[in-house]
Amino acid sequence: MMDINALPYRPCVGIMLINPAGLVFVGQRIDNLVEAWQMPQGGIDDGEEPQTAAMRELGEEIGTEKAEIIAESAGWLNYDLPLELIPKVWKGRYRGQRQKWYAMRFLGTDADINIATSHPEFAAWRWVEHHQLPDLIVPFKRDLYQEIVAEFAPLFGGAAR
């Protein structure tokens, strides 16, 4: 039997991409069987700085790096995968992810976003209000999304709802 607590967290970055209207980018994952939307995120390569990983992941997942970092999460946020997913995700090497989050100002236009990348992760995308984010994500990431929305709420001119 696998000792879940002995497994490490996968080092990762998350990106809250904010357009000029104050809306946040979300993509619908290709591999989800349920309709769940998430912000871009991805692993940090060995020796890679988290800020560099965030810009790389933005390009890999939505086809553009037309953004600038405007805020960084104070700490690292973790989430645990549901037990049934651990053997299926990342070859069973991780219990979940440890994420450093970045808020980014989008400097492009919608035409600059192209989710048909070389390794597509999203089937569709849209802009949403920041307070909607926890309701759109898969349940096992909801607490993390609530934390990051609360932390970045001042960027939207107020507190989280």
UniProtKB/TrEMBL annotation:
Question: Which InterPro entries does the entry link to?
Answer: Nudix_hydrolase, NUDIX_hydrolase-like_dom_sf, NUDIX_hydrolase_CS, NUDIX_hydrolase_dom, RppH
Q: Where is this motif: Nudix box?
A: 42-63
Give the matching Gene3D superfamilies. Nucleoside Triphosphate Pyrophosphohydrolase (3.90.79.10)
Keyword Hydrolase attributed? yes
Q: Which cofactor does it need?
A: a divalent metal cation; Mn(2+); Mg(2+)
The enzyme class is hydrolase
Q: Where are the transmembrane segments?
A: none
An individual GO BP term: nucleoside phosphate metabolic process
| Residue intervals of the Nudix hydrolase domain | 8-150
Return the CDD domains for the record.
Answer: NUDIX_Ap4A_hydrolase_plant_like
Keywords from the named record: Hydrolase
What GO terms are given for molecular function? bis(5'-adenosyl)-pentaphosphatase activity; guanosine-3',5'-bis(diphosphate) 3'-diphosphatase activity
What is this protein's function? Accelerates the degradation of transcripts by removing pyrophosphate from the 5'-end of triphosphorylated RNA, leading to a more labile monophosphorylated state that can stimulate subsequent ribonuclease cleavage.
Q: Which family does it belong to?
A: Belongs to the Nudix hydrolase family. RppH subfamily.
Q: Name the chain's protein.
A: RNA pyrophosphohydrolase
Q: Which organism is it from?
A: Zavarzinia aquatilis
